[in-house]
Design goal:
The structure is a single chain. This protein folds into 2 domains: 89 residues, Ribosomal Protein L25, Chain P (Beta Barrel); 80 residues, RNA Polymerase Alpha Subunit, Chain A, domain 2 (Beta Complex), CATH 2.170.120. The chain contains 3 helices and 13 strands, in the order βαββαββββββββαββ. A 6-stranded mixed beta barrel has the order 1-3-2-6-5-4. The longest helix is centred in the first third of the chain and has 8 residues. One of its GO terms (biological process) is translation. It comes from Fusibacillus kribbianus. GO terms for molecular function: 5S rRNA binding; structural constituent of ribosome.
């Protein structure tokens, strides 16, 4: 489990100023936290963390030396500025189920013999105790054929008794469809000599 260091943020300093100084802002919420804790983290530390962890990942968040077993609840990207604006965390309680999501990762798509993969769900929503949290669902699509479909209920996460799915088990995650060639318009024969 990765660790991210953060500091409590003074609300007197504007977010814009903190971002210019190389920080990413965020909040920590949780059942055992009275009010949300506004925090700031070093931008380089956040970028390093997000290379391996994302929304739905469980990390150790250290706020001014106090460790929190935390879930990354939301990551707000600013595509225009090319930066991460804010990350929100939920401090976990070991005996309390939390809502989370697992990112769908397709494996071996280069081995697909025919057809086109269509990813219909990029994440699976569920509830689980902190010990059962999953941040990624890997699906091997290398053996799929045209007409094949994988539904949420077909995934390992659906068979896990410690996980309560909130995404519909019948929802299609990925399918393989035939490639339909574009209709080529017929051109009139050229009669110029």
């Amino acid at each position: 489990m990765n660790t991210l260091k953060a500091e409590k943020r003074s609300m007197d300093v504007k977010a814009k100023k903190l971002r210019r100084e190389g920080y990413v802002i965020g909040n920590v919420i949780g059942r055992e936290i009275e009010t949300s804790i506004p925090i700031k983290m070093q931008k380089k530390d956040v970028e390093r963390l997000l290379k391996t962890d994302g929304k739905g990942s469980q990390i150790m968040l250290e706020v001014d030396g106090t460790p929190y077993d935390a879930l990354i609840k939301d990551v707000a990207y600013n595509p225009n500025a090319g930066r991460i604006d804010e990350i929100d965390f939920q401090a976990l309680v070991s005996n309390e189920k939390v809502h989370s999501v697992a990112e769908v990762i397709l494996l071996n798509h280069e081995k697909l013999a025919e057809g086109v993969l269509q990813l219909n769900l990029s994440e699976i929503a569920y509830k689980a105790l902190p010990a059962a949290l999953v941040d990624k669902v890997r699906i091997d699509v290398g053996e799929m054929r045209i007409g094949d479909a994988i539904r949420v209920k077909d995934l390992d996460i659906a068979a896990d008794k410690d996980i309560d799915l909130t995404t519909d088990p019948e929802a299609v995650v990925v399918t393989v469809t035939a490639i339909h060639p574009e209709a080529v318009p017929e051109t009139a024969e050229e009669t110029e000599s």
